[in-house]
Amino acid sequence: MEKLIPVQMNEKWVRFTRFPCTEGHIDRWIGDGINDPNNKTMSQLSVNSFTEYYRLNDGKWIQKDHFERDFSHDLLWLHEEHDAKAIWEAYLLDEAK
User: Fold this and answer.
1) What is the pLDDT of residues 37-86, one digit of tens each?
2) I want to staple 37 with a disulfide (CB 3.0 to 4.6 A). Which of 12, 14, 17, 45 is the partner?
């Protein structure tokens, strides 16, 4: 079985890590808290505070606060053994569904 290795990618101003899963992928963006990767351009301001956003299979980016606390850590190993949608649904909080 081929090892599924995370890859650094760019789309416009957004630089993110793609976690390939057994089926599909989950992307993680880490950046300044004033920015939102759903926006067309990056803010010229900085609040010197970082946040994370995730997206499933090139969908909309969703802020980390809408996921279970351990999502970022668990994604590091879950992506190699599970389907992206199954991981997403297991960690996405009910209010974000």
Assistant:
1) 999 999 999 999 999 999 999 999 999 999 999 999 999 999 999 999 99
2) 14
2 contacts: CB under 8 Å, gap ≥ 6: none
Residue written as token pair 């004033």: 34
Spell out the alpha helix ranges (H) of 1-97: 71-78, 84-91
Prediction pTM value: 0.93
CA–CA separation, 27 and 17 (whole Å): 6
DSSP string, 44-66: S---S-EEEEEEETT---EEGGG
From the centroid of its chain, how far is CA 47?
21
- Residue 70, C-beta contacts closer than 8 angstroms, at least 6 positions apart: 91
